[in-house]
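Example 3.2
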Amino acid sequence: MGERGGALRGQLHQLVREVAKFGAVGGLGVLVNLAVFNLVRQTTEIPVVRASIIATVVAIAFNYVGFRYFTYRDRDKTGRTRELSLFLLFSVIGLVIENGILYAATYGFDWDGPLQSNFFKFFGIGVATMFRFWSYRTWVFRHQPEPVTVAAAGAEAAAAAPAGAEAVPAPPPGVRSAAPGRSSADRLAPRR
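Structure, written as tokens:
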């Protein structure tokens, strides 16, 4: 239990750090989102949901930079095209969630005053954030696979071998192993 409990504590600590970093970037993204939303609402005649969509798109761009270079900087960076495509896909789904709530409040219930719009904009951001956190950490910014060391691979093979079996070292990379039952002298002898 000691080793297992330590691993569990380590995973929990890592999750707490990830949530804190996600929250820091997301919190700044919410401020950007609400600031752009209110700026567009007060300085233009753009309808409320369109102003919200503009603000959400600006926040998505801000958040991608923050997530890639702060929250998930230690994650796999090999497939940037895939990562960006998935980020945009899940961000658009989040945009629909966030602005769907605002749309329902504005046009379904006629709650379109500044305070009501900001409340439902903020509520929509909160609901969409839960979806984004799950999707970004699961699909977009994936963990890099743990490297397997030669010593660890040998220890795993030894542990998996039946009791009393002779340990046979693995051949170096690029070298084929001998067929069972043939010695190295047999392999070197010419075939007839």
